[in-house]
Request: fold
Amino acid sequence: MKIVIQRVLNSSVEVENKIVGKIGRGFLILLGISNNDTKEKIEKAAQKISRLRIFSDENGKTNLSINDIGGEILVVSQFTLYADCRKGNRPGFINAGAPSLAEDLYNYFIEYSKKLFNKVEHGIFGADMKVSLINDGPFTVILEDGNGI
Reply:
């Protein structure tokens, strides 16, 4: 699993000229699934994200979690996080999860996250999406197997 977390002031995702997900302050989460991922790994990652302290407290220190500030999340599937650019100029995606597994785990991440976060919005798996955001900081964190999850 590879996850890019961007702290945002707001973010939205559009499919076929229609906003399908929109949040205010919180996290835009780009989620890449591999064939090695499981529901247990999804739960561990979502819990980790809920506890990340990357929002500023009254002293300007990054001591607050998304739940401390009542933040929201927008989850977007992104198999391209598994792009392999080592050979040639066209990325390969052999390490990305099979579409059926990836879609099931993406949907599980969304449903599980509803237990942990104030508001959960999401894109549409496999769709051509237009993602907008105002990155706050900017502050971006990358989680992947062996590095945080």
